[in-house]
Automatic annotation (TrEMBL):
Its EC number is 2.3.1.225. It holds the Pfam family DHHC. GO terms for cellular component: endoplasmic reticulum; Golgi apparatus; membrane. It catalyses: L-cysteinyl-[protein] + hexadecanoyl-CoA = S-hexadecanoyl-L-cysteinyl-[protein] + CoA. InterPro entries: Palmitoyltrfase_DHHC (IPR001594), PFA4/ZDH16/20/ERF2-like (IPR039859). It comes from the Eukaryota. This is Palmitoyltransferase. It is an enzyme of class 2 (transferase). The DHHC domain is required for palmitoyltransferase activity. GO terms for biological process: protein targeting to membrane.
């Protein structure tokens, strides 16, 4: 079953999503440039490591866009209430619409969402019944990509053999240490935040 497109007009959400896309672009461009390609050319790593990084990056950005545009479970203006379920519906005092219990009204989106968990500014969308699994996918792939990036940063500094051929006229190699520190800092921040959120979401599902 296909997901309905849902687009939220929210400048704050656009800024948050733009920040996430910037972090993704930064690591997708500079990590291969500084670590993967040079070490692959000198035989320190295999092509599998390079392909795995790009696959993780692709899955991460694809899950971000899917979670941000998927309908979280927005209730229609005139919902059809089955006779057997009328006792489980209630009136929303904000939009004056009937909604099933466990639904919530999102003040930022301006409508009720079935089994709404929260409004996430980082995907500029609510997390509800229909896109909760997409949000969990995003958290999972983000953890993998952040962990992979941190491992590469660590191995480049402390494990891999020093590079024999370096083009010091290129910007990335002149500022290699600064670029790696920025990458590691962003990776730690995102991994810590996403891991805590992912754990909270799983505990909520299990309990």
């Amino acid at each position: 079953m296909g997901q309905r497109i849902h687009f939220v007009v929210d400048p704050q959400g656009w800024c948050c999503m733009g920040l996430i896309i910037f972090v993704w672009l930064y690591n997708t461009i500079f990590i291969p440039k500084v670590i993967l390609f040079p070490h692959y050319e000198e035989g320190n790593i295999s092509v599998v490591a390079v392909l795995c990084y790009y696959f993780c990056s692709l899955f991460c950005i694809a899950s971000l866009f899917r979670a941000s545009v998927a309908d979280p479970g927005k209730l229609p203006e005139n919902p059809k209430i089955p006779i057997t379920e009328r006792e489980y519906w209630e009136l929303c005092n904000k939009c004056n619409m009937m909604r099933p219990k466990r639904s919530h009204h999102c003040s930022r989106c301006g409508h009720c969402v079935r089994r709404m968990d929260h409004h996430c500014p980082w995907i500029n969308n609510c997390v509800g019944e229909d896109n909760h699994w997409l949000f969990l996918q995003l958290c999972f792939y983000t953890q993998i990509l952040s962990s992979y990036t941190l491992i590469l940063d660590f191995c480049h500094c402390y494990y891999f053999l020093p590079l024999k051929k370096e083009n010091w006229d290129v910007f990335v190699f002149r500022h290699e240490l600064a670029l790696l520190r920025i990458s590691a800092f962003m990776g730690l921040i995102i991994l810590g935040g996403i891991s805590r959120l992912f754990y909270t979401q799983l505990m909520g599902i299990f309990t």
